[in-house]
Design a protein that fits this description.
The chain is mainly alpha-helical and 81 residues long. It has one domain. It starts with a helix and ends with a helix.
Length: 81
């Protein structure tokens, strides 16, 4: 249930932002990033972004696993009664 809510929210956000951004807007954003950060900083920026996304996904998986374990413990306690 929790994972479904997260996936639904990300799908909604993805559709919302991609529906309002066309190719010209994306090109302008990419040019602005290139001008602001320069060619040498972009790989470092992307590496940091990748690490951040990886850490977020790990934390999300840990929370999901803990919730599932908690539900299993509650089910086993209920079944023992």
């Amino acid at each position: 249930m929790f994972g479904t809510i997260i996936c639904t929210n990300f799908t909604f956000l993805n559709q919302f932002f991609m529906a309002n951004l066309g190719m010209p807007e994306l090109i302008i954003i990419l040019i602005a990033i290139l001008v602001l950060f320069g060619g040498k900083k972009i790989p470092e920026f992307m590496r940091g972004l990748g690490k951040g996304i990886r850490e977020f996904n790990d934390a999300k998986d840990n929370v999901k696993r803990e919730l599932q374990e908690g539900m299993k413990e509650k089910d086993s306690e209920t079944a023992a009664k």
